[in-house]
Write a structure and sequence with these properties.
Elements lengths: L4 E8 L5 E2 L5 E7 L4 E7 L11 E8 L5 E9 L7 H9 L16
Parallel strand pairs: 4-6
Antiparallel strand pairs: 1-3, 1-5, 2-3, 3-4, 5-6
């Protein structure tokens, strides 16, 4: 729905990241390997943001079908992805099995 806040998640397509030379504007494509959507964002991307990695973007869909994000969250594994995105990635055979984290012993 246009001008309604949505959440878009999936894998950042390799080769899709475009950065503006004179601003913090970026454009990239996110896919669940069935469908893709272009996302634009103005700001500093998270440290974990990489092409080929999972992200969730929060923003609004414009009339051109582009998500204008006001927040981008990088995900280090699919455990933090929206369930519907994780399912789509698994169904497409693109999702890697989640690797449990190992606690660090302190003291």
């Amino acid at each position: 729905p246009l001008d309604r806040r949505i959440r878009a998640g999936g894998m950042v397509e390799k080769g899709s990241l475009q950065r503006s030379a004179d601003s913090l504007d970026v454009r990239f494509v996110v896919t669940d390997f069935n469908k893709s959507v272009t996302i634009t964002y103005r700001g500093i991307l998270p440290d974990l943001f990489r092409e080929g990695q999972g992200i969730v973007a929060l923003g609004k869909l414009n009339a051109q079908g582009v998500v204008v994000a006001d927040e981008v969250l990088a995900k280090h594994d699919e455990k933090y992805m929206p369930p519907e995105v994780t399912k789509a990635l698994r169904d497409s055979g693109q999702a890697a099995p989640a690797v449990p984290s190992t606690p660090v012993k302190q003291g």
